[in-house]
């Protein structure tokens, strides 16, 4: 499991940052996430990144954060390179790359310093209607489960020789990863919908398994992205 | 040359603790071995070492003369077919035939479809070739997951809890198949809680507890060993319990033998 | 086949159900009366209809799973078709085969309080009640843990806690031993026995085999192809050679001690009581 998943769902970290009010953490992460989008110069972007790293350092999560950055660095370089090829000035291209890196860093930071039930608390404080809040926390709650399912699927398929013939072969075998992932998510989605009915949500309303499939679909997408980042 | 060799194998979790502690044993080609133990005893981790999904932290695992450390899962799987416990996490194809052909295609076998067909037939799924795997019943899906591994004829078969959810008839057929595979020289390793099934199969049994092997021997010896039962967290099969309680020299091998022993006891008392 | 029972917890009257889009009925002509306060073991192979049966008790059939319904199901006297799932769930708890899918909150404690809060209990009171229930099941130390960190046995207990938080009179368990090892299964059976005795709950346990619940069951119902094949008290059923043969043909194996009982009977040796465990067999023999 990636550091992100473990920290979001696992044992709570022990630092001033972790102990901070979750609303504060959300706000900080949001600011760090949004400001790169609004900045143009390289200097503000570098500063933003520095703030992210220092917050992570205070939260003793700097190493985990850097681990999460690795794939992002690659993508960031690709973005900058393609902009330069498209004719933009070097400084602009660098800024775009950095912007991407900043956003990913801010999102990673959020994952690293917050836990799922804190997210639930913040949503409640924001007066998000209970239903939507549950929708979001359930989706988040199922991310590690779907990630686990996905890794079991990947293990099953490589145990049947997927990828034995090289990368292209592996690509051709992708449906063997995607189909069971979707099938398992759908089944989980249906059962989650059942569980919610039983617990009294939707009392009196027509059955709507669709919503939960949607939620789980989103969770699945997040899970796949996170797993791909391993 | 043994088919499987574990030599001083230790496997540690990332956050400390050992899933396997100094595990050493070897399995001859064509042998059938059942691994019993409570959840967390290391039996699943042991199974996962067989096809390289997991590599030892210390020590060596040698499969058919090859050290697993340098070999990828997909390469090792050509020789070691691991059948997972949950078929739902692997079935994906449009038809059962395609599902069973996946492995042979990956391993570039000469005639994947024919190999798939014969595996399906061996698992009594011949009539279901064109059905969608997800439309099959639980028991059929389990058989399909076994067929999907048999199809590339690995020399070692590892099955994780193959009898869970299976009815009596399917279990008896599986028992017959395991004996058949052994007779063909295929090494079979199963991890199972089903002591009654293992008793009837009568393979070699390795009992595990807390990452170590606590007993290793013929099924009728290990499963009736109360000490091993306690550590490995299983209950001896009923026939063994009866044998132990009556202090019989030989544990009854089947129902009739047990009834004989009890008749003897009761008639003896009556006289 | 079944006559009315004295205090019915669940009653099926000529109940049939076919899932929408399916050609074959999942349940056919079910006539069943399940007595309150007893532990009922519903046994059958895959496709026998056991999951559909319990869905029909909690109301998932017909309110969540649509299809063609015939006949009637009553839970504690109230018609299932006429009540909502939410209402039924106040009287019936349902523990999934994979409890992971019903632990919805971020922590164990919140999950157990969830049902209570949905019913209007204020959060602080709900928390107190949750802790109490978790303590009763021996897992209060898991209060702040995240559900996916738990072992299978622990997850199951937490799911049971979440269901009994609503103080139901009936508890449904779908193949509870399928994910557990023998040790954990024995612990679960002991817990169910205690819940039945202490709380007077009606337990309905679905399994695909007789053991290990048979030793605790007051009543066994064997399903086959969507219909009731056999039903009765465990010793009555297993003491009858024809029933044992029928069970075998349906793929349900009988415990070796029962097979020994019949073998002795065939030799002219009649043991007073049908043994459901090795201890029982030995005490009968030694008597």
Q: Write the element-wise H/E pattern of chain A from the N-terminal end onward.
A: HHHHHHHHHHH
The helix content of chain A, as a percent range, equals over 70%
Could you give the distance between the termini of chain A?
Answer: 8 Å
**What structural category characterises the helix and strand content of chain B?**
alpha/beta
The poorly predicted ranges of chain A are: 203-208
β-strand number of chain B: 10
Q: Could you give the order of strands across the largest sheet of chain B?
A: 6-7-8-3-9-10
What fraction, in percent, of the residue positions of chain B are helical? 25-40%
Hey, roughly how much beta strand do the residues of chain B contain? Answer: 15-25%
How far do the termini of chain B sit from each other?
Answer: 57 Å
Mean model confidence by pLDDT of chain A: 73
Which characteristics define this entry?
heterotrimer, B: 271 residues, alpha/beta, Rossmann fold, six-stranded mixed sheet, four-stranded antiparallel sheet, 39% helix, globular, C: 287 residues
Structure, briefly:
The complex is a heterotrimer of chains A (230), B (271) and C (287). By secondary structure, chain B is α/β, with parallel strands linked by helices. Chain B has 11 helices and 10 strands.
Q: What does the model show?
A:
The complex is a heterotrimer of chains A (230), B (271) and C (287). With 230 residues, chain A is mainly alpha-helical. Chain A contains eleven helices and no strands. Among the domains of chain B are: 124 residues, 3-Layer(aba) Sandwich (Rossmann fold); 35 residues, no CATH class. Chain B is built from eleven helices and ten strands. Chain B has a six-stranded mixed β-sheet with strand order 6-7-8-3-9-10, sandwiched between helices. In chain B, strands 2-1-4-5 form a four-stranded antiparallel β-sheet, with helices on one face. Chain C is 39% helix and 22% strand. Chain C has eleven helices and ten strands. In chain C, the strands form two sheets. In chain C, strands 6-7-8-3-9-10 form a six-stranded mixed β-sheet, sandwiched between helices. In chain C, strand 1 and strand 2 form a beta hairpin. The longest helix of chain C is centred in the middle third of the chain and has 18 residues. The relative contact order of chain C is 0.15. Chains in contact: A-B, A-C, B-C.
